[in-house]
Protein backbone atom coordinates (compact mmCIF):
# COMPACT_ATOMS: atom_id res chain seq x y z
CA UNK A 1 0.00 0.00 0.00
CA UNK A 2 0.99 3.58 -0.45
CA UNK A 3 2.09 5.66 2.40
CA UNK A 4 0.04 8.79 2.91
CA UNK A 5 1.96 11.95 3.81
CA UNK A 6 0.26 14.72 5.63
CA UNK A 7 1.58 18.22 5.08
CA UNK A 8 0.65 20.89 7.58
CA UNK A 9 0.72 24.47 6.28
CA UNK A 10 0.17 27.21 8.77
CA UNK A 11 -1.90 30.26 7.89
CA UNK A 12 1.01 32.61 8.71
CA UNK A 13 3.19 30.94 6.07
CA UNK A 14 0.44 31.29 3.44
CA UNK A 15 0.04 35.01 4.17
CA UNK A 16 3.81 35.65 3.98
CA UNK A 17 4.09 33.69 0.74
CA UNK A 18 1.19 35.63 -0.80
CA UNK A 19 2.66 39.00 0.20
CA UNK A 20 6.10 38.11 -1.21
CA UNK A 21 4.54 36.79 -4.40
CA UNK A 22 2.56 40.05 -4.94
CA UNK A 23 5.66 42.18 -4.20
CA UNK A 24 7.75 40.10 -6.60
CA UNK A 25 5.24 40.48 -9.43
CA UNK A 26 4.97 44.22 -8.72
CA UNK A 27 8.76 44.65 -8.87
CA UNK A 28 9.01 42.69 -12.13
CA UNK A 29 6.28 44.80 -13.76
CA UNK A 30 7.92 47.99 -12.48
CA UNK A 31 11.31 46.98 -13.92
CA UNK A 32 9.73 46.14 -17.27
CA UNK A 33 8.09 49.57 -17.48
CA UNK A 34 11.24 51.39 -16.41
CA UNK A 35 13.61 49.59 -18.76
CA UNK A 36 11.29 49.33 -21.76
CA UNK A 37 12.18 51.89 -24.43
CA UNK A 38 9.15 53.60 -25.87
CA UNK A 39 9.47 54.13 -29.64
CA UNK A 40 7.23 57.22 -29.61
CA UNK A 41 8.86 58.98 -26.67
CA UNK A 42 12.54 58.84 -27.50
CA UNK A 43 14.67 61.47 -25.82
CA UNK A 44 16.30 62.93 -28.94
CA UNK A 45 14.79 66.26 -30.01
CA UNK A 46 13.20 66.47 -33.42
CA UNK A 47 15.10 68.66 -35.85
CA UNK A 48 13.04 71.76 -36.57
CA UNK A 49 15.22 73.19 -39.36
CA UNK A 50 17.52 71.92 -42.06
CA UNK A 51 20.91 73.45 -41.17
CA UNK A 52 22.20 76.10 -43.52
CA UNK A 53 21.99 79.73 -44.64
CA UNK A 54 18.68 80.83 -46.08
CA UNK A 55 17.84 84.13 -47.76
CA UNK A 56 14.76 86.09 -48.73
CA UNK A 57 14.30 89.50 -50.28
CA UNK A 58 12.80 92.55 -48.66
CA UNK A 59 11.67 95.37 -50.91
CA UNK A 60 12.00 98.95 -49.68
CA UNK A 61 10.86 101.38 -52.38
CA UNK A 62 13.23 100.61 -55.27
CA UNK A 63 15.81 98.78 -53.16
CA UNK A 64 15.92 95.03 -52.64
CA UNK A 65 17.57 93.84 -49.43
CA UNK A 66 18.60 90.24 -48.85
CA UNK A 67 18.00 88.93 -45.35
CA UNK A 68 20.16 85.94 -44.41
CA UNK A 69 19.14 83.59 -41.61
CA UNK A 70 21.68 81.05 -40.37
CA UNK A 71 20.15 78.01 -38.64
CA UNK A 72 21.28 74.68 -37.28
CA UNK A 73 18.94 71.75 -36.62
CA UNK A 74 16.84 73.45 -33.94
CA UNK A 75 18.31 76.89 -33.27
CA UNK A 76 18.62 80.22 -35.08
CA UNK A 77 22.26 81.30 -35.07
CA UNK A 78 22.13 84.65 -36.87
CA UNK A 79 20.10 87.11 -38.91
CA UNK A 80 21.85 89.68 -41.13
CA UNK A 81 21.49 91.83 -44.23
CA UNK A 82 23.72 90.56 -46.99
CA UNK A 83 23.70 93.54 -49.38
CA UNK A 84 22.95 96.73 -47.46
CA UNK A 85 24.83 99.82 -48.60
CA UNK A 86 25.38 103.21 -47.00
CA UNK A 87 22.59 104.95 -48.88
CA UNK A 88 20.00 102.48 -47.55
CA UNK A 89 21.43 102.81 -44.04
CA UNK A 90 21.15 106.59 -44.27
CA UNK A 91 17.64 106.47 -45.73
CA UNK A 92 16.36 103.91 -43.19
CA UNK A 93 18.37 104.43 -39.98
CA UNK A 94 16.27 102.02 -37.90
CA UNK A 95 16.90 98.95 -40.07
CA UNK A 96 20.24 97.80 -38.70
CA UNK A 97 19.62 98.42 -34.97
CA UNK A 98 16.16 96.87 -35.26
CA UNK A 99 17.54 93.79 -36.99
CA UNK A 100 20.25 93.52 -34.32
CA UNK A 101 17.57 93.59 -31.61
CA UNK A 102 15.53 90.89 -33.37
CA UNK A 103 18.65 88.79 -33.94
CA UNK A 104 19.57 89.04 -30.27
CA UNK A 105 16.14 87.80 -29.22
CA UNK A 106 16.03 84.99 -31.79
CA UNK A 107 19.52 83.76 -30.88
CA UNK A 108 18.43 83.64 -27.21
CA UNK A 109 15.71 81.08 -28.06
CA UNK A 110 12.77 83.49 -28.07
CA UNK A 111 10.07 82.22 -30.43
CA UNK A 112 9.45 84.46 -33.43
CA UNK A 113 5.85 85.08 -32.41
CA UNK A 114 6.94 86.14 -28.91
CA UNK A 115 9.50 88.76 -29.89
CA UNK A 116 9.06 91.98 -27.94
CA UNK A 117 8.42 94.91 -30.27
CA UNK A 118 9.74 98.32 -29.27
CA UNK A 119 7.28 101.17 -29.61
CA UNK A 120 9.55 103.51 -31.59
CA UNK A 121 10.33 100.94 -34.29
CA UNK A 122 7.44 98.48 -34.22
CA UNK A 123 6.54 98.91 -37.91
CA UNK A 124 10.13 98.34 -38.98
CA UNK A 125 10.32 95.33 -36.70
CA UNK A 126 7.11 93.90 -38.09
CA UNK A 127 8.39 94.33 -41.64
CA UNK A 128 11.64 92.54 -40.74
CA UNK A 129 9.82 89.79 -38.81
CA UNK A 130 7.65 89.03 -41.82
CA UNK A 131 10.74 88.65 -44.00
CA UNK A 132 12.45 86.46 -41.35
CA UNK A 133 9.36 84.25 -41.05
CA UNK A 134 9.34 83.83 -44.82
CA UNK A 135 13.00 82.82 -44.69
CA UNK A 136 12.45 80.38 -41.83
CA UNK A 137 9.67 78.67 -43.79
CA UNK A 138 12.33 77.70 -46.34
CA UNK A 139 14.45 76.18 -43.57
CA UNK A 140 11.73 74.14 -41.86
CA UNK A 141 11.67 70.38 -42.24
Keywords:
141 residues, alpha+beta, Sufe protein. Chain: A, 3 strands
Note down, in words, how this protein is organized.
With 141 residues, this protein is of the alpha+beta class. The chain has a domain at 52-139: Alpha-Beta Complex (Sufe protein. Chain: A). The protein has helices at 11-35, 86-91, 95-107, 122-139; strands spanning 52-60, 63-71, 76-81. The termini are far apart.
CATH fold description of the domain at 52-139:
Sufe protein. Chain: A
Q: Could you give a short account of the major beta sheet?
A: 3 strands, antiparallel
Radius of gyration: 32 Å
The CATH class of the domain at 52-139 is: Alpha Beta
Give average pLDDT, whole number.
86
Strand content: 15-25%
What letter string, H or E per element, gives the SSE order?
HEEEHHH
Low-confidence stretches: none
Structural class of the helix and strand makeup?
Answer: alpha+beta
Question: Total number of helical segments?
Answer: 4
Distance between the terminal alpha carbons, to the nearest Å?
A: 83 Å
Shape: rod-shaped
CATH architecture of the domain at 52-139: Alpha-Beta Complex
User: What order do the strands of the largest sheet run in, or round the barrel if closed?
Assistant: 1-2-3
